[in-house]
Amino acid sequence: MTLTGVIDDHMLIQYRVLLDREDAAFDELEHAYEDGDRDHFETDFNDWIQAMSRRLAYLRRIGIEVGA
User: Fold this and answer.
1) Which of 31, 32, 36, 56 is geometrically suited to a Cys-Cys bond with 40, CB 3.0 to 4.6 A?
2) pTM of the model
3) Is 68 a member of any domain?
4) How many domains does the chain have?
5) Is residue 4 part of a domain?
6) Phi-psi region of 67 (alpha: psi -120 to 50; beta: other; left: phi over 0)
7) CA angle at residue 25 from 20 to 30, to 5 degrees?
8) Alpha helices in 1-68, H assignment, sequence order
9) By C-alpha distance, which of 45, 43, 55, 56 is closest to 17?
10) How many Å apart are CA 25 and CA 19, to the nearest integer?
11) What's the CA gap between 52 and 16, in Å, rounded?
12) What's the pLDDT tens digit per position in 9-38?
């Protein structure tokens, strides 16, 4: 796969925003886990999954497939 034209400043800025959101969601999840707060853990887990999904969807939209 050639990424010429796919990776540019705009792509990197957008990707960084998505990574930061995912990182923040994970931090919240981690805090809920450490506090033993099951209700917040469930909510924070779903928020983290959504943040990851948005990041992966963005990559697919610009033509980058992430395989297992």
Assistant:
1) 32
2) 0.85
3) no
4) 1
5) no
6) beta
7) 120
8) 9-35, 38-61
9) 55
10) 10
11) 12
12) 999 999 999 999 999 999 999 999 999 999
Alpha-carbon distance of 11 to 17, in angstroms, equals 10
41-51 core/surface letters (b: 16 or more CB in 10 A; e: else): beebbebbeeb
Domain range for residue 55? 9-61
Residue range 38-62, pLDDT digits in tens: 999 999 999 999 999 999 999 999 9
Amino acid at 54: R
